[in-house]
Write a structure and sequence with these properties.
The chain is an alpha+beta fold. The protein is built from six helices and eight strands; from the N terminus they run E-E-H-H-H-E-E-E-H-E-H-E-E-H. Helix 4 crosses helix 5. It is globular.
Length: 199
């Protein structure tokens, strides 16, 4: 649906569920991103079939494709339309695709979707202190580090610091041009004026 530099965000399909389950049960990925309650393959399939066919109001989840292959996913979670904010999450599950800039491009598209299409004002993210790769990713994309919840969660048998990052709509537009501009009618002399506020 939305593509930059061969990285595409698209809505998930039922055919993606087995791939997602493989990532869900990968121990290395769980160590970096956090353990989730274990589900059988059948229970996982049921959960994601429902999530794909009947999306939750406060969650948007999209697959990341690189050169036509599903390599991960992004999500806007805990969407609060009244407060115009949401939490961002990302997983590149295909480890051979790490360090190619895919995650930063996918996050950039997700943020554009959040601010331009969903009209949110703030997107935030939480990252474990030991996950240096994700900490660098947040800074590279332009998130501001807002603080640290010290020893906030127990993960792998130890209390872990949680780093909090945030980005505001105005900060995004200072660094990026939106993908979602309205088309300009070349026959309309005032067409360009209709795009004000989209850059």
């Amino acid at each position: 649906m939305f593509t930059i530099n061969n990285v595409t965000l698209r809505y998930l399909e039922l055919d993606d569920i087995d791939t997602l389950y493989g990532w869900e049960t990968d121990i290395e990925l769980a160590i970096w991103s956090g353990w989730t309650p274990p589900l059988s393959r059948a229970a996982f399939r049921h959960k994601y079939e429902q999530r794909i066919t009947e999306p939750e109001k406060d969650l948007v989840m999209m697959g990341i494709e690189f050169e036509g292959q599903l390599v991960g996913y992004v999500q806007l979670a805990l969407i609060e339309d009244d407060e115009r904010r949401a939490a961002a999450g990302i997983l590149v599950g295909e480890k051979r695709m790490w360090r190619r800039g895919i995650a930063s491009t996918a996050l950039r598209i997700l943020l554009d979707y959040a601010f331009t299409v969903r009209n949110l004002e703030r997107v935030y993210a939480e990252v474990y202190g030991f996950n240096q790769r994700s900490l660098r990713l947040m800074e590279r994309v332009g998130f501001q580090k807002e603080g640290v919840f010290r020893q906030h969660e127990i993960h792998n048998g130890a209390r872990q610091d949680m780093h909090v990052f945030g980005m505001l709509k105005a900060e995004f537009y200072q660094n990026y041009e939106t993908l979602f501009k309205l088309p300009v009618d070349v026959n309309d002399e005032n067409g360009a004026d209709k795009l004000q506020g989209c850059d």
